[in-house]
Design brief:
Layout (H helix, E strand, L loop, with lengths): L13 E3 L2 E4 L4 E4 L3 E3 L1 E4 L2 E4 L3 E11 L2 E18 L2 E17 L6 E9 L4 E3 L3 E4 L7 E4 L20 H13 L4 E4 L11 H15 L8 E3 L11 E2 L3 E3 L7 H8 L21 E5 L2 E5 L7 E3 L12 H13 L5 E5 L17 H12 L4 E4 L5 E6 L4 E5 L19 E7 L3 E7 L5 E7 L4 E7 L1
Parallel strand pairs: 13-14, 14-15, 19-21, 22-24
Antiparallel strand pairs: 1-4, 2-3, 5-6, 7-8, 8-9, 8-10, 10-11, 10-12, 13-26, 16-17, 17-20, 18-19, 23-24, 23-25, 26-27, 27-28
Helix pairs in contact: 1-2
C-alpha cells in the first residue's frame, strides 16, 4: 500500500501510524507510532534525523537516572541537564543510553540533541524529580494486547496502547516518582529477535510522553520471556544466549545491575532480577519465568516460580538491606491463580516457596499475570496482591476460590487498574488500588 502526503514542512517533526483491516480474520490492527522529519537538500526532500523512540527514564540506583532512546538512523547524541552539556556520545548508533550519576534530591530539566554530518535535531525539554525522602511508587502490569479485539488501537504491535498510555497519564497526575510494570509488557511469541524488539518499542511508545518524566522499572513476565522464542516438536523454549529473551530485555532496558550470576551457558539475570532502594523502602524484582520452557507432550508447572539462584540471591540481598524499614517483593506469576482454579493451590512447589518467603520475613508480595485486581491471604498468612489490569483482556475471578479454605479473598475487581504505594502520615506503608476513573477499589496498610 502507498499513501501520498502533501504539504509537509521542512524541519518539522510528524507522528503517524497506519490502521488496517484483516479481511480474512475480520480484525482491525494498527502499527505503532512512527516519526518523520522532512529535510531538504537542494530541490530534493530527504529524511532528517528524528526519534524512533523518544527518551524513556529508568533508575539504576537511588541517585542515578538512565535515559534511553532510539533514533531513526545511526547518529551521535548529546545530553543537556539544566541547560549544560552533560554527556556526549560520539558513537553513531541507533540505541542510545545515558546514565546520570550522583544526583541530589531535586527537580532536573533535560533535553537531547542528536546529530550527524547531515542534520541536527533537538528534543523537547523534559524534567524529572528525585524525592528527598518519601517516594510515591506507581505499579501496574500486563499491558500486552489482544489479537481478538476489533478496536484498532487495542492491538498495536503486541501492546494495548490506549490503556497503557491512560494509566501512565493517571500516574503522572498522581505525581508518582517511579513506576514498576509487573510483566507481560508485550504479546511476544515470535521467533524474530528484531521483531520482539519492535514490540518493546511499541510498549515504550505507549508509555510516552510520561516515561520522559517518570522512571519506568519493568519486571519480566511469561510473554516477555518468549520474545523471542524457539519451537520444536516437543517444546517451546527460550533461545540460548546471546539471542535469549533475557538478552533482549537487557538490550532494551537500563535497570539496576545487581543481579545474581547465571550458571554457565544459561541466559543472563542481568536487569531482569534486581533490587533498588528508594528511601527506606527496598524493592526486590524477581523473574518467575526465567529460561522459559513450555512442553507440548507432558504436563507443565501450574505456576512458574523464581529458581534457586534467585532464592539464594534474595536471601543475600535481603540481609544486605536489613537496615531498611520496608521490603517489597515483586514478580509476575502469583503463587495462587485467581482466574484458573487449583493453579498453585495445594502445590508442593508453591508451599515450599511461600514458606521460603515467610522465612525471610516477607508478609506480602505484588504480582501480575491474572488480568484483574485482587488482594487475598494465603494459607500461611502471606498476602498476595495482584495488579494485572494494564491492558490485557480482563478476567473474572473464579467463584470456586471463595469456597477454598486455603485462602481468604479480601477484595477483587474486574477492571483496568493501577496501584499507589506510599507512606502515610503515621509512616505506615499504604497501598491504594484505583480504576481508570481514579476511584479507589481497595486500600490497605502493608506490614
Amino acid at each position: 500500500h502507498t499513501f501520498k502526503i502533501t504539504g509537509l514542512k521542512e524541519n518539522s517533526q510528524y507522528a503517524f501510524k497506519i490502521a488496517f483491516f484483516d479481511t480474512v480474520n475480520k480484525i482491525f490492527y494498527a502499527t505503532q507510532t512512527y516519526y518523520l522529519k522532512p529535510k531538504k537538500q537542494g530541490e530534493e526532500f530527504t529524511e532528517g534525523l528524528t526519534y524512533d523512540v523518544w527518551p524513556y527514564l529508568s533508575m539504576v540506583d537511588s541517585n542515578s537516572i538512565g535515559i534511553s532512546f532510539y533514533t531513526n538512523r545511526p547518529c551521535k547524541a548529546k545530553l543537556y541537564v539544566k541547560g549544560k552539556e552533560t554527556i556526549l556520545d560520539t558513537l553513531k548508533i541507533l540505541k542510545h543510553e545515558f546514565i546520570i550519576k550522583n544526583l541530589k534530591p531535586q527537580k532536573y530539566e533535560y533535553y537531547l540533541e542528536i546529530f550527524d554530518e547531515y542534520d541536527t535535531t533537538a528534543s523537547f525539554v523534559f524534567n524529572f524529580y528525585i524525592p528527598h525522602k518519601n517516594w510515591k511508587i506507581g505499579i501496574f502490569g500486563d499491558t500486552r494486547g489482544n489479537p481478538n479485539s476489533i478496536n484498532p488501537v487495542f492491538f498495536v504491535d503486541g501492546v494495548n496502547e490506549e490503556i497503557t498510555r491512560q494509566i501512565m497519564s493517571l500516574l503522572y497526575e498522581e505525581h508518582a516518582n517511579i513506576v514498576f510494570v509487573l510483566g507481560d509488557l508485550i504479546t511476544g511469541r515470535m521467533k524474530s529477535f528484531e521483531y520482539a524488539e519492535e514490540e518493546y518499542k511499541s510498549f515504550l511508545k505507549s508509555c510516552w510522553p510520561y516515561s520522559s518524566y517518570i522512571p519506568i522499572m519493568p519486571i519480566p513476565g511469561n510473554h516477555d520471556m518468549i520474545a523471542p522464542v524457539m519451537e520444536d516438536d516437543e517444546k517451546r523454549y527460550d533461545p540460548p544466549p546471546p539471542y535469549s529473551a533475557e538478552n533482549l530485555w537487557a538490550n532494551v532496558f537500563v535497570l539496576p545491575e545487581n543481579s545474581p550470576q547465571e550458571d554457565s551457558g544459561m541466559p543472563p539475570y542481568r536487569e531482569n532480577v534486581y533490587f533498588i532502594s528508594l528511601g527506606d523502602i527496598v524493592i526486590y524484582a524477581l523473574n518467575s519465568d526465567y529460561n522459559y520452557v513450555l512442553s507440548k507432550n507432558k504436563p507443565n508447572p501450574s505456576v512458574r516460580l523464581p529458581d534457586q539462584n534467585q532464592r539464594k540471591w534474595l536471601t543475600k540481598v535481603k540481609t544486605l538491606n536489613s537496615s531498611k524499614k520496608y521490603h517489597v517483593l515483586m514478580f509476575h506469576e502469583p503463587l495462587v491463580g485467581l482466574s484458573s482454579y487449583e493453579r498453585g493451590i495445594k502445590s508442593t512447589d508453591v508451599d515450599s516457596f511461600a514458606s521460603f518467603l515467610k522465612s525471610l520475613n516477607f508478609n506480602f508480595y505484588i504480582a501480575g499475570h491474572d488480568h484483574l485486581y485482587a488482594r487475598c491471604t494465603l494459607y500461611n498468612g502471606l498476602t498476595q496482591i495482584v495488579t494485572a489490569g494494564g491492558g490485557a483482556p480482563l478476567y473474572d475471578l473464579n467463584e470456586e476460590l471463595s469456597k477454598d479454605s486455603t485462602l481468604k479473598i479480601h477484595s477483587w475487581k474486574k477492571a483496568f487498574n493501577y496501584l499507589i504505594l506510599e507512606k502515610d502520615k503515621r509512616d505506615n506503608l499504604k497501598l491504594t488500588a484505583k480504576n481508570l476513573n481514579k476511584e479507589i477499589i481497595d486500600t490497605t496498610i502493608l506490614k
